[in-house]
C-alpha cells in the first residue's frame, strides 16, 4: 500500500493558540497520522510530554513511526478520547481536538467512508467495535433509520431515503457503499448541489462512531483537566460538532448557571473558561486551495481560568 498521508489543518493557527512552551505536557486527543503532534513536540522540546489518543489502529501505527524520534516523550493511547480522564490523571498545559476522520479513512475504499469508491459499508474508526454502518442499514427499523439520517445528517429527505432502504433491503441486503449510494440517488429526482449521499453518509458515520456523544463527554473531562491558563483548541468539520463546542465553551465561561427566575445566585458555579475566539477561526483561501479537506474547518479556542 502507498504511504498514507494527511495534511494537518490550521497547523500554524493551532500551534499559536495552544500557546506552547518548552517543557509543557500536551494532550492530542486525535493523533491521526501525527501531523499536529510532530510540530507540537518540536515546540515543547526535549522536556515536554505528549499524551496522544487514537482509536484507529492503522493511523496509530503510522503516527508512531512518524514520531519515532520523540518516542520517549509520548504516551500513546489506543482508545476513544471519551475515556480522557482514565488516562490523564493530572492537569495538563494544553489540549487539542482535531475531530472526525483523516484522509486515509476516505482514501481507502475498504473502510467504507467514501461515497465515491466502492467498498464494504463499514465506517468504524475503531475496528474492535461491533456496530458497523452495514448493521445499521440492514437491521434498523424505518423510523430509527429516518431519525438517524435527519438528526445527524440534517437530510430533509430522510423519511423517503429510509423507506427506500427498507424496500430495497427486503430483496437483497445492502452491503456496499456504492449500492447504498444508488439507493439514495434513486430517491432524488433533480440534480443536487452536493453529492446526493453526502448527508446520509455523514449521518451514518456520526451514528456508528457516536461522534457527538463522545465529544460532549470528552470536552467536560478535558476542560476540567486543564491547568490555569492552559489552552484548549478544537477543530471541527460540521455544524453539529461546532455547535457542541460553542455551547460547551459558553457554559464553562458563565459566572452563574441558576435558573433566570432566581433573584439571587445559589449555584456557586465556578467559571472555568475565557473564550478566546468569539467567532471560529477558519482556514485562509490559500490553505483551502492546497487542501480542499480544510474548507469546512472551524477552530475554537478557550483558556482555563
Ligand atoms: C482529523 S484526524 C486528525 C489528524 C491529525 N491532527 C493529523 O495531523 O494527522 C482525526 C483522527 O482522530 C481519530 N478519532 C476520531 N474520533 C476519535 C475518538 N473519539 N477517540 C480517539 N480518536 C478519534 C480518527 O481516527 C482520526 O485519525
Task: Write structural notes for this entry.
By secondary structure, the chain is of the alpha/beta class. The protein folds into two domains: 11-104 and 211-304, 3-Layer(aba) Sandwich (Rossmann fold), CATH 3.40.50.150; 130-208, Putative methyltransferase TM0872, insert domain (DNA polymerase, domain 1), CATH 1.10.150.170. The chain is 41% helix and 13% strand. The protein has helices at 11-18, 35-44, 57-66, 84-87, 103-107, 133-139, 142-153, 158-171, 177-185, 198-208, 211-224, 239-252, 285-290, and strands at residues 25-28, 49-53, 74-77, 92-98, 226-236, 273-275, 298-304. The protein has a seven-stranded mixed sheet, sandwiched between helices. Strand 1 (25-28), helix 2 and strand 2 form a beta-alpha-beta unit. Helix 7 crosses helix 8 and helix 11 packs parallel to helix 12 (239-252). The longest helix has 14 residues, at 158-171. The radius of gyration is 21 Å and the shape is globular. The mean pLDDT is 96. The protein binds S-adenosylmethionine.
Amino acid at each position: 500500500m502507498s504511504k498514507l498521508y494527511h495534511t494537518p489543518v490550521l497547523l500554524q493557527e493551532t500551534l499559536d493558540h495552544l500557546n506552547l512552551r518548552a517543557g509543557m505536557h500536551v494532550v492530542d486527543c486525535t493523533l491521526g497520522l501525527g501531523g499536529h503532534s510532530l510540530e507540537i513536540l518540536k515546540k515543547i522540546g526535549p522536556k515536554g510530554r505528549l499524551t496522544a489518543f487514537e482509536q484507529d489502529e492503522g493511523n496509530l501505527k503510522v503516527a508512531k513511526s512518524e514520531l519515532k524520534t520523540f518516542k520517549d516523550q509520548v504516551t500513546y493511547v489506543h482508545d476513544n478520547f471519551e475515556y480522557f480522564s482514565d488516562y490523564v490523571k493530572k492537569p495538563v498545559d494544553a489540549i487539542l481536538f482535531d475531530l472526525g476522520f483523516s484522509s486515509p479513512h476516505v482514501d481507502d475504499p475498504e473502510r467504507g467512508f467514501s461515497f465515491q469508491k466502492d467498498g464494504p459499508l463499514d465506517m468504524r474508526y475503531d475496528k474492535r467495535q461491533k456496530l458497523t454502518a452495514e448493521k445499521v442499514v440492514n437491521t434498523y427499523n424505518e423510523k430509527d433509520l429516518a431519525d438517524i439520517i435527519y438528526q445527524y445528517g440534517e437530510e430533509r429527505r430522510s423519511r423517503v431515503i429510509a423507506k427506500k432502504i427498507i424496500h430495497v433491503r427486503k430483496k437483497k441486503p445492502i452491503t456496499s457503499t456504492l449500492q447504498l449510494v444508488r439507493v439514495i440517488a434513486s430517491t432524488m429526482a433533480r440534480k443536487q448541489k452536493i453529492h446526493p449521499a453526502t448527508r446520509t453518509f455523514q449521518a451514518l458515520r456520526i451514528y456508528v462512531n457516536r461522534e457527538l456523544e463522545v465529544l460532549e463527554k470528552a470536552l467536560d473531562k478535558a476542560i476540567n483537566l486543564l491547568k490555569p491558563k492552559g489552552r484548549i483548541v478544537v477543530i471541527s468539520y460540521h455544524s453539529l460538532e461546532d455547535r457542541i463546542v460553542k455551547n460547551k465553551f459558553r457554559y464553562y465561561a458563565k459566572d452563574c448557571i441558576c435558573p433566570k427566575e432566581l433573584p439571587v445566585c445559589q449555584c456557586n458555579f465556578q467559571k472555568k473558561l475565557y473564550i478566546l475566539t468569539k467567532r471560529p477561526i477558519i482556514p485562509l483561501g490559500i490553505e483551502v486551495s492546497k487542501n480542499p479537506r480544510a474548507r469546512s474547518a472551524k477552530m475554537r479556542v478557550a483558556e482555563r481560568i
